[in-house]
From TrEMBL:
Keyword list, A-Z: DNA-binding, Transcription, Transcription regulation
CDD domains named among the record's database cross-references: WHTH_GntR
Domain (HTH gntR-type) ranges: 16-84
Residues that span the membrane, as ranges: none
Organism: Massilicoli timonensis
PROSITE patterns listed in its UniProt record: HTH_GNTR
Record's protein name: GntR family transcriptional regulator
Keyword Methyltransferase recorded: no
Length: 258
């Protein structure tokens, strides 16, 4: 066993539960880069013997570390340090992907898979209130720290943004060009989030297995006048991306950090 684990001395007289002391130790070592992605964690039996604690205590710590994305379990192989998980508070503020990644301190890039004018499906036509049935369809694969993170399908009304389909959205911002060149911007969004199993197409794009759990985030964007400007469906690799929500009482008068 790595001597790293011997650095933890459990405070048995402390009011802090033993499982939480171990959990926080693991989190601290991951954040300090003393534990790295893919590192194998000692077995429950080894750790129980080292710390003289019960298996239920240790299992509670492991369960929370897995649920919070710090560790991952592989059947018949063991427990490992998970890939870095990006934690976003995207619901508090309208942010473009580039802005969100920069706020998280992550390098990013975009590959455009499609950008064309097409006849919209009934779902898209209804959401965007299309008069002529035509939408600009933009498909982008987004990368964070060199790895696929989200595959995004975006639709905007052709009658409002005619010509924007000719831009290279691997280099330029959709929102910025909507505002600068067309005088329209997304002032309000409605989002819905659902956990689904990856289809073969989505799994291939995100570099995961068909059936793997992913997040499907549907965004409807509206102008100040409540005119539908955008309808997007984004598929996020859930093992690398999680969302944090600040939920407060109506009586709360304080400030929430943005």
């Amino acid at each position: 066993m790595d001597k790293l684990y011997e650095k933890l001395v459990l405070q048995r007289q402390s009011a802090i539960p033993l499982y939480y002391q171990f959990k926080q130790f693991i989190i601290d070592k991951i954040k300090a880069n003393e534990l790295h992605e893919g590192d194998l964690i000692p077995t429950e039996e080894e750790l129980c013997k080292l710390y003289a604690i019960s298996r239920p205590t240790l299992r509670q710590a492991f369960a929370e570390l897995v649920n919070e994305g710090y560790l991952t379990r592989q059947r018949a192989k063991g427990t490992f340090v998970a890939k870095h998980s990006l934690s976003s508070k995207f619901v508090n503020k309208i942010m473009q992907f580039n802005e969100e990644m920069e706020a998280l301190g992550v390098t990013h890039r975009t590959e455009v898979k499609k950008c064309a004018v097409e006849n919209a499906s009934p779902e898209i036509a209804s959401a965007l209130q299309l008069r002529d049935g035509k939408a600009i369809a933009l498909q982008r694969l987004r990368f964070a720290d060199g790895e696929p993170l989200v595959f995004e399908f975006t639709y905007i009304p052709y009658r409002l943004f005619r010509g924007i389909e000719n831009l290279n959205f691997a280099k330029v911002s959709l929102y910025e060009n909507m505002k600068k060149e067309y005088g329209l911007y997304v002032a309000r969004t409605e989002k819905s989030v659902r956990a689904i199993a990856a289809t073969a197409e989505i799994a291939e794009m995100l570099g995961t297995k068909e059936g793997a759990p992913i997040l499907r985030i549907v965004t409807k964007g509206f102008s100040v006048e409540n005119l539908p400007l955008e309808y997007s469906i984004a598929y996020y690799l859930s093992e690398r991306y999680n969302m944090r929500l600040d939920v407060v009482s109506p009586d709360f008068k304080g400030c929430i950090n943005q």
